[in-house]
Amino acid sequence: MTSPTPYPIGTPGRPWGAAEKAEWLARQTQRRSYAEEVLAAVERLRAQCEVVEYGRLDYGAEHYPLLAIRSRGWDEALPVALVTGGVHGYETSGVHGALRFVERHAGDYAGRANLLVAPCVSPWAYERIHRWNPDAVDPNRSFRADSPAGESAALMRLVAPLRARVLVHVDLHETTDSDESEFRPALAARDGKPHEPGGIPDGFYLVGDSARPQPAFQQAIVAAVAQVTHIAPADARGEIIGSPIVAPGVIEYPVQQLGLCAGITEARYVTTTEVYPDSPRTTPDACNAAQVAAVRAAIDFALAHPDG
Fold it and tell me: Structural domains in the chain?
């Protein structure tokens, strides 16, 4: 077995310093437009929902308004359903699945729930199809006090007044082939650790919160998504990406301990979706549809079982 090729930035075994991070940043190029693909889509939704700017990211000469979509006629007596996408900017269906859900289904929940949707938490990374922000920080390991990621800090400020009122939170993600070809090797190099090659599961799966497992909730989502795209099987060890499955298509993490977006509220029902867009068995449209199916199933289950 041959050893993995060393990552092209840094010295193996030595964490990156300022010079290595600057070299990494210099390699990043804009590959798509947040303004044209996300902000314009949000603007089209103003006719049916409220749009709020909850923060702004200033990276050199680049400026990114952070927008969230709220139910029109917000009712303090109703539970809150939170949907987040694009915490990792390269995970495209998280962003466009969230937007599609609002466009096609927000009205279904009028008078039943308050919707709060942050469709693209990490716009700089969205434009560069990347996992990190320009400081080489992963926002989805940074949802904690004194966060080093502006993306994470801004979302936490938005959600803070509602933490105890959120009934269900769905965080939309993807697992891609580039996780193994680029992002995991980059992480190992950044932290001065060896990269241990792994596999990418072929199909959709969920990451539940080990502190709030809610197995019936997770399985309701898996069943809904199975009507749209295939569910990832466990590997020969009964695992998905190194974690044992707790039910078909479901693994669990301690989300708050890891600083994950799914841990930012006290919601009874929490899940992180993982769509596999690189499968030959799916399409971009199917991936967006899978995210929508997951959100609808999650909210529908939570509203039907508000007390667990």
Answer: 18-304 (3.40.630.10)
